[in-house]
Amino acid sequence: MNKPVATSTLPRLDESLLSHLPPFSKLDKRQIRTILDQATSRRYDKGVAIFDEGAPAERFYMLLDGYVRVVRVTATGEQVTALHIPAGQLLGIARAIGKEFYPATAMTATESLALSWPMTLWDSFAADYDGFATESYKTVGNRVSEMNNRIVEMATQQVEQRVANALLRLINQTGRKVADGIEIDFPITRQDLSELTATTLHTVSRLLSAWEKQGMVQSKRKRIKVCDPHALVVLSQI
To answer: Smaller CB count within 10 Å for the chain: N or C?
Structure first.
């Protein structure tokens, strides 16, 4: 994996960066200042690993800006995108699931900014700060639920339904409204989409081309826009 590329140390960050984010939203400014003063801030170029699967889980992260792909490598060496994480969420929280090593690789899908803390602080944050533990475990629960839903989809749904559901999840999590639809707000390739839905690149390309002709989506230059979300909802339920 590529190594992270960082800028020089960023200016002293303001408490407002964390005050609205769930793990820290119940804290006062003094507590948030204490947490920020223990953080390291870093910018990452697009397409680099913040941390690698199997590496010792030495730090945990809060993504402040950008998008991250959670990538696993199969026993046969294939790279599979398991999740996308938008800004405002924790990542690398191996301690929360009782792991000493990162269970996946976090790859930046865009230029990104993240804070990080030594994993040794996880237990004290959970004990000392109201809401940190409960909100963090909600994040874990939501991700496990999403993965379980995907497993059910792969076991019970046709490919067309799976691809439709994947697009609906992405616009719900990271979509931004544009003039004629909702665009996934980070570069995503047809290969990425095939990995998310456990199907082939050929099948995803065929479906997107057909849906483009029907005016449901637009796909070009690593950008996918959903022009008719309702039609995708109908497809996902057939």
So the answer is: C
